[in-house]
Amino acid sequence: MSRSRRKLYSLGLGALDMTLLDVERKRLQPTLPLAEYLPGAGAPASADWGPAISAVLAQAHKTQDSGDLMLTVSDAWARYWMLSVPEGIGSLEELRALARARFEALFGTPADGWTLMAEWRTRGQVLVCALPERLLAACETLGEEGVWRVVSVQPHAIRLMNSHRARIPDDAWVCCFGAQGMLALLLQGGAVQYVRRFRYQRVPEADELMDMLDGEILRAGTDTPMKLCALGILPEVAHGTRIRDMKLVLPQGDDMQAFRPGMSAESVMLARVRGGLA
């Protein structure tokens, strides 16, 4: 294939499954069960991600020799937290050391085996996200082999927020829904001030969701925003609907993917997330 015509593929790495999408043709490859190809899945930092990624990409070799790859990772495999930067911090090294200490305090295990990512700054609140180092190393190996060029690796919530940034209110709860959990981020003045990930077996109903968010508002010690911005795998609900005192905002518009348990694989939705290559 000509280098000028490298095809773009999108790989969705869900909590339980994985799917590859030919973006140009909008053609999905068969979904594969992740557990069959991921040794040590119970410990994501030490699991061997190489066989899983190779297995799902092998499906494309039947028709294609190479391509660009965008990988979207379920938030089940990511870790999120806020870092409050104290006065006197003047280097990236110090910030990273603080973030690693905070990771251990929150998750009860050292940050060894995790890659920390953030828009680092020396004041205020910093949203930090971590992905397994071995997952990112497996992606780097693909690029070194010259068959695939990995153009982007992002967790689901970050991909969604980057994709729809222009339509996300500056002051709002932003809820990124997945098949087995939701990441809730509180935005004030366009900056993330608070984050919490919830696990669930089904997408919560409106009243359940509000009870969850009200509890976090009490923990954050702030006021409830006027808007709720919903992204990801959503129930069928109309833009502009009011949920208690908040106006519902749906930036995905016509691209919104409704999720029906037992009928749709999470990884299919992940592979279909558009844009957000940064």
From TrEMBL:
It comes from the Bacteria. This is Uncharacterized protein. It comes from Candidatus Dactylopiibacterium carminicum.
